[in-house]
Amino acid sequence: MGPVIAVDGPAASGKGTIARALAQHFGLPHLDTGALYRAVALAAARAQVATDDGPALGRLASGLDLSLLEDPDLRSADTAQRASCISACPEVRQALLAFQRDFAAQAGGAVLDGRDIGTVIAPDAELKLFVTAAPEVRARRRWLELGAAGGLAGLAAVAAEIRARDARDQDRAAAPLRMADDAILLDTTDLDKDMAVRRAIELAISRLGPAS
Ligand code: DC
């Protein structure tokens, strides 16, 4: 059995970049589980299903059209907020559970990033990282990714969106964002992308040994 690496953390913490880099370093397949919730959110928006209609959202998630993972709207701010809303529905989480657990159970190992990987999807993962950064630093990163759109007012809007998403993801009853007891905290507030990736790979090597 290859190792399972769980990477959790809030929006724009750098967890996706770190998960992709770890997958590449160790030659493991990678699943961005946030993309699954985003795809359900997009399907719901297009089918005009309300973000709190658990049974209808659960049906959409069970029959998820995986081509939505390639949709240009998957990464929009609107889809992100909607994903944060629909992910509070237990029916949605239940419908996406088996796919994620099967991905984590591949014989060769896997890297998954999300909010509940270390706590719910892969509680026995060989390595759990909880990646975070100060909210204002995360907001600034996301705003720069968007080409600094809207100037300082744009930055304030992104910061408000991130705060709203953090609150929703942490406060929901079903599998809230929280650090697993046995996770290693990686705070990227004062690290640039390369430094954060290097630190994550060092931590992984110290726990798992070098890539074989
Ligand atoms: O990682 P992301 O920003 O693409 O995630 C979008 C939303 O999906 C996030 O705000 C909460 C939800 N999500 C979740 O509830 N559980 C996961 N494992 C991954 C994402």
Mean pLDDT figure: 96
Report Rg.
17 Å
Q: Going across the major beta sheet, what is the strand order?
A: 2-3-1-4-5
Approximately what portion of the residues adopt beta-strand conformation? 5-15%
| CATH homology superfamily of the largest domain | P-loop containing nucleotide triphosphate hydrolases
Number of strands: 5
Helical content band: 40-55%
CATH class category name of the largest domain: Alpha Beta
What distance separates the N and C termini?
Answer: 13 Å
Largest sheet composition: 5 strands, parallel
Structural class computed from helices and strand pairing: alpha/beta
SS element count, helices: 9
Q: Which sequence of SSEs, written as H and E, runs from N to C?
A: EHEHHHHEHEHHEH
Can you tell me the overall shape? globular
Question: How many domains, as an integer?
Answer: 2
Gross CATH architecture of the largest domain: 3-Layer(aba) Sandwich
Question: Could you characterize the architecture of this molecule?
Answer:
This protein is of the alpha/beta class and 212 residues long. The protein has 2 domains: 1-29 and 109-212, Rossmann fold, CATH 3.40.50; 33-105, no CATH class. It is 53% helix and 11% strand. The chain has 9 helices and 5 strands. It has helices at residues 15-26, 33-46, 54-62, 77-86, 90-104, 117-121, 135-145, 151-171, 193-208, and strands at 4-8, 30-32, 110-114, 127-132, 184-187. A 5-stranded parallel beta sheet has the order 2-3-1-4-5, sandwiched between helices. The longest helix has 21 residues, at 151-171. The relative contact order is 0.22. The model has no long low-confidence stretch (mean pLDDT 96).
